[in-house]
Fold these 2 entries.
Entry 1:
Amino acid sequence: MIKHIVLWKLKQTADGSTAVENAQIMKERLEALNGRIPGMKKLEVGIDFSRTQASFDVALYSEFESRKALDDYQVHPEHMAVRKFIGGVIEGRHIADYEI
């Protein structure tokens, strides 16, 4: 099984919305992918509440049945549409992929 974790830092304002509003939009759009991507077992999104200097604004945790399933997710048209929105509202991200 593959675990895919992403942390995003959002721009204060982007796409006509605040970082708080964009975090909620990201959460809704990403969670809408559940059950729609072959090989994706689980996807959850959390919005940070601690708001510290070291915090990221949005976290994604997902599980895939294989590396191929993760690769296929990356180019899936529904994921690409969400990525386009995310790319316009973030200022940074960190990613970790690992296999168990």
Entry 2:
Amino acid sequence: MDTLDREIKELIIASLALEDVRAEDIDSAAPLFVDGLGLDSIDALELGLALQKRFGVQLSADAADNRKHFASVDSLAAFVTAHRAA
């Protein structure tokens, strides 16, 4: 597991207070919503704020873009890599 993936997984766990979940338990390619971790729209808002604070990224107002970015840890890592504040 690379460093950014681990950071994002730990951020998900901490910001959403996921009890009994470890970074190793989260599949980087698995969906974060519905079938995967089972996150919902409120979780997406909280996670978006946490990503903004931790990595300095700005999320789009376009819901379709955000769904794509929040699809999995892999897609979040790609988004953060492309948009991280210097």
